[in-house]
Amino acid sequence: MSVDYKNTVFLPKTDFPMKGELPKLEPELLARWEKIDLFGRLRATAKGREKFILHDGPPYANGNLHIGHALNKILKDVITRSQQMLGKDADYVPGWDCHGLPIEWKIEEKYRDAGKDKDEIDIVTFREECRQFAAKWIGIQKEEFKRLGITGDWDHPYTTMTNHAESVICAELGKFLLDGSLYKGAKPVLWSVVEKTALAEAEVEYHDHTSITIWVKFPVVSASTPELDGAKVVIWTTTPWTMPGNRAVAYGAAFDYVVVEVESSDSDLAKVGEKLVLCADLAEQVAKDAKCSFKTLHTLKGSALAGTIAHHPLKFHEKAAGGYDFEVPLLAGGFVTTDTGTGFVHIAPGHGEDDWHLGKEHGIAIPDTVQPDGKYFPHVAIFAGMDVLNQGKNGKYYSPVAKPVIEAMSSVGNLLAHGKVEHSYPHSWRSKAPLIFRNTPQWFISMEATGLRAKALQAIADTRFVPDQGRNRIGSMVENRPDWCVSRQRAWGVPITVFVDKKTGQPLRDQAVMDRIVEAFKAEGSDAWFTSPPERFLGPDRDPADYDKVTDILDVWFDSGCTHAFVLEGEEWPRLSWPASLYLEGSDQHRGWFHSSVLESCGTRGRAPYDAVLTHGFVLDEDGRKMSKSLGNVVAPQEVVGSMGADILRLWVVGSDYSDDLRIGPEILKTQVDIYRRLRNTLRYLLGALDGFTEAERVDPKDMPELERWVLHRLSELDVQFRDACNGFQFHGLFTELHNFCAVDLSAFYFDIRKDALYCDAATSLRRRAARTVFDILLDTLAKWLAPFLCFTAEQAWLARHPSEDGSVHLELFPEIPAFWRDDALAAKWAQVREVRKVVTGALEIERREKRIGSSLQANPKVYVERTDQFPDNVDWAEVCITSGLELSFEDFPADAFRIPELPTIAVTARNAEGEKCQRCWKVLPEVGSAKHEGVCHRCSDAVEAG
């Protein structure tokens, strides 16, 4: 009669569920953290420690969060939490950008739909609507961020639209005003005719656009060399609308040019006998484009063109009325290339950066040709009032004036050809409309007047960049950038608080005036600029009639560039510190927030506002495509959180190499779920095996069996990698190691071996107590290590082991791993043990597959090795291989022995174990039946006896 020994076996027992049910669990833990004031307790616990301040780059308060927001904020949270648990005071204040065109555009839209003009609305009323719109979205985004498990000062975030923020932004601008850096100038800037404002580089994105191209002839009126007499210089441009603004033609001094004669023509535009001047390398292509053939008359160097004067192609148009009656000089330009075109570049100083500089260099007046709304000024001959850009019925933008320009050029015989080209072209990231370069009065901060460029380049050199190539990217941008245009012609933002002297045209630089403005903003916000009479700020000693008050607003990038000043140095968060330890955003912020912040800080403080900068890539779909609603490949973080849980998204972030673009989609998320399940099962198994564990069971590591000491060695190795990863802000390699540790080292090896001792050894056995001690260490370590990453799951596991009303794993520090746990000699020995085990396991797998055995415990294999050093001493091989016995042999390998290619010096012959099956541990042993208790082995009999 068999005896039921089930109740004598120590089976795992835990309330920690197998399924995470994260969508249900996570909100409960969020409520708990709020109840125990986790953020406040973190600040109190960390008081006095070394500070680590990750300064939040402000997202824009407009619309629900997308997957890029989730990536960014989770990465910030992981770093902040990990630095806190490394023993620092890692405070985090989230923030928002609130000013700017996207919000203003939304409010305008409401008025447009009602048939009203925004400019008819009281500006303070309009600004208040913008303010309320931003506040609404801040509230929505805040809850969405919190749901991702982001810890921070959510009760007191920063926004760029508070009175405090606006007063500091105003004061920061005042520093540039007072040191002479801020000036008013007219330069071509990227301009949106749709939004009627200048745009910063960071607000520009490039898309394919189809442009009309024209080849235009400029008749020579004064030749520098006889070969040019009677010739016409040919330019090529993709912007016909800029032709009214032409004032010069640029050539490459080192290039070879040819004077050609049109021999034959299949076009009405190329006249036989006409003499044209072209770059020698491009003449053949121009002939094809113009559908004609050329005969070369002369060859000359570009330098020989110096001093040549042409006239504008439209000078003699019947409607020109003297509007183009000026000289058009040929000028050497270092920016001219021979890649495409004709080797000549038409110069419109009001419509291009290179054009403007060349015009200024040669004293050419900069004409104003295009109004803010994209129409030509009334004084522009032939084309007055026409639009340079418009939206067609198909939704695509085109230049309606291109056709009139072509017709005008053709009518005077100065059009050689026209066509179309699709090319990358700047667009507004808001309206998605193409942009133009337009000369317009703007406020600039000089890059040279006070050495701002040199200071910024030095600051960049002194900053740590992760990855390192970010330094070169932002450095080249700063090195080559023009002066910083900080003005915008809009309503919603911090006003440019400057008065201009009507007589001199110079800005008023008066500290007392600036102080009065700053104090007003502190009390009332920046609306005070619009509601207050000038005398409030100018004071009693100045006559308001002598000054104009500027009505432009500041570029929002100047706003965000000042966040370090009103957050890190501000009176509202005295616990923070300046400079920030880290700025972290997407790689596009090299031309955005990183850029504006370093310029603002270097201009006012002489160094960067950050010690380190980390950049991450963008999020693409599983096929590497950009996400779009039309493709149906958008992954919304809210949907992932609602169906799978935030910890799955967090696992995706830390498991990805975010130095490059990341991919996400159903299959990738499914993989993350599988990885999560393995990690969770590891925690669950540890908790179950620790049921009833007490300190009385604990075993000193020096008294533990080798297998336990090997596990502690692995923890010591991982600890080094873990801390390096946290300090290096690179986690994907670490998570591969952690996953392998849990899945391979623990589940498939250590747990597999120790299952027998845990279940069947007597409660007092050293082996079982040592294993449980190590399990306790593993659970403590893994819960703490996982806390910054899987913040909800780690908390759940921690509380399952340490029940508490107000405890939290997030209040803990990472464990200090004793140095003596590291044992490289032991690790080398157990690497050999695992090699032998691998071959044995492979042999027994075949036996199971062929149904010759049911489990490995029914086997007693014979293992052959070539050398004794391959079979380490003092190892219980049956225990390690989970068999009922194992014989070692140094005999020749039998021909039919099992081997694996990578370990050719080890072979295994499978044999069945002899004896009876123990009814308690299931080992097959000859001793079963001879013990005190019926049907069990001696070990199990003693365990039953001990109770």
Structure notes:
The chain is an alpha/beta fold and 947 residues long. Among the domains are: 173 residues, Isoleucyl-tRNA Synthetase, Domain 1, CATH 1.10.730.20; 240 residues, Alpha-Beta Complex (Isoleucyl-tRNA Synthetase, domain 2); 88 residues, hypothetical protein PF0899 fold, CATH 3.30.2320. The protein contains 27 helices and 34 strands. The strands form 10 sheets. Strands 6, 7, 8, 9, 10, 11, 12, 13, 14 and 17 form a 10-stranded mixed β-sheet that branches. A 4-stranded parallel β-sheet has the order 1-25-26-19, sandwiched between helices. Strand 15 and strand 16 form a beta hairpin. Helix 20 packs antiparallel against helix 23 and helix 23 packs antiparallel against helix 24. It starts with 21 loop residues before the first helix and ends with a helix. The model has no long low-confidence stretch (mean pLDDT 93). Belongs to the class-I aminoacyl-tRNA synthetase family. IleS type 1 subfamily. Its main location: cytoplasm. This is Isoleucine--tRNA ligase. Monomer. Its EC number is 6.1.1.5.
